[in-house]
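During the second half of the funding period, the structural biology subgroup turned its attention to how the target accommodates small molecules. The most pressing case was 5CA, which had performed well in the primary screen but for which no bound structure existed. We therefore specified the complex as follows and requested a full 3D prediction, including the ligand pose.
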Amino acid sequence: MQEEKGALPPKETFSEWYNDILWQAEIMDVRYPVKGLYVWYPHGFAMRKATYAILRELLDKDHEETLFPMLIPEHEFMKEAEHIKGFEEEVYWVTHGGTSELDVPLALRPTSETAIYPMYKLWVRSHADLPIKLYQVVNTFRYETKHTRPLIRLREITSFKEAHTVHATWEDAQAQVNDAVDLYRAFYERLCVPVIVSRRPDWDKFPGADYTLATDAIMPDGKTLQVGTVHHLGDNFSRTFEMTYEDPEGEQRLAHQTCYGISERCIAALISIHGDDKGLVLPPAVAPVQIVIVPIIMKKREEEIRAEAEKLERELKAAGFRVKTDYRSLRPGAKYYHWEMRGVPLRMEIGPRDIDNGVVMAVTRLGEKTQVARDSLIAETEAIMESFTGHLKERAEHKAQEQITLAFTLEEAREAAKTGVAVIQWCGCEECATTVETEIDVSVLGTDVQSTYIDNIEGRCIICGKPARPAIIARTY
Ligand code: 5CA
Ligand code: ZN
């Protein structure tokens, strides 16, 4: 589609690297003529497909997939006061059908609470109907005023996975919140992306929620990216949408709800955390091509080498690998470069000498070489893939650990926030948080931190000295 244009900028210059890799590895084309809207290249879309297949697999265990309309009538959208306040500056409105003005303006969903809950009101009758656990993967629209960025801050979010659940009690909904956090953790584990879970401060919770738990990933430049949120909605929406159920004693009760969402930011994190100076590095689980076969053609034995490459491809495919053979008449070096840029986890080279010796040369995207015996091909390849995934996970975790620093003074926090997340003691009051945020230009991400790297030890507030608990702060995307 586009030819390689020289080397990537080094990853240390993260923002240039990020912009370049998106088109060099054929993930997104940013040239679409509307701000905040971008186009998926087929290769990027294949990554998305593999990534969302994992998300769907995890959700499908106890959720059902659904699909609701994208247009929301104004009167439904305007029902929940907090929700409106949170979104009114971000909504796109459809006001006309052709040349005539619509009687009822229609909102392009920025998220789907107000599309889904009027229907839930009709569906929820008795306690026997509960719980309801549905999700959809859709596009949503937000008129973002902060700097837009492909995969990170979009005006059309193309890959918004939103789950919406209904429960009898507040406690049932709380249990669902915890299950959802576990699900997101499992998802990011499969992407080998380390995440930190925390409880957002009250002023930063989802509009209309009782509380919000968020998962954050740390990007190479030390800024955090919120890559998923889980909200306990309490009975806030069921009050406004009159969603009641009859309990076993025949009493009408308000339902309790949760919702949780993930967008293509998961792919931004995946790209940024694993990639290197040569391009993408993809965990096999999400790599559109997991193995590329590069035949080393020698004129005299060309037929034989081709036949062997075909056989190799057949065997690997039969074992379930996503395989491609590169027959183009390019130098092997140019092919290596091409597939390294696209993050293919494993390259297999097959030349005359390999055929004679009954082997293939396997080289991982991180440069580890193994001579694989032809007669134990599948078992050895599986082992290489597994160890490669383990290696990626370890590397990412090590880096994340390096990017988290305990800070005991504002000065230390300022230093730590230059390279990642600082863990401070914070009393929980908004005033102290504001002081921290303005003094060192960070956001207070949250408390009740769930991370293997951070202990929840009580201490004294970094600002006021009152009893405090750990909070994480960082510069954010
Ligand atoms: N209804 C709830 C849960 S589905 C909701 O909308 N929550 S949210 O506003 O927090 O969005 C869910 C996730 O989508 C966020 O955690 C963030 O990772 C991602 N997200 C939000 N806005 C954008 C945006 N403009 N571009 C890309 N991703 C976004
Ligand atoms: Zn304080």
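Two results from this model are relevant to the next phase. Residues 111, 113, 142, 144, 153-154, 157, 162, 206, 226-229, 231, 259-261, 263, 265 surround 5CA (ligand 1) (CB under 6 Å). The radius of gyration is 25 Å.
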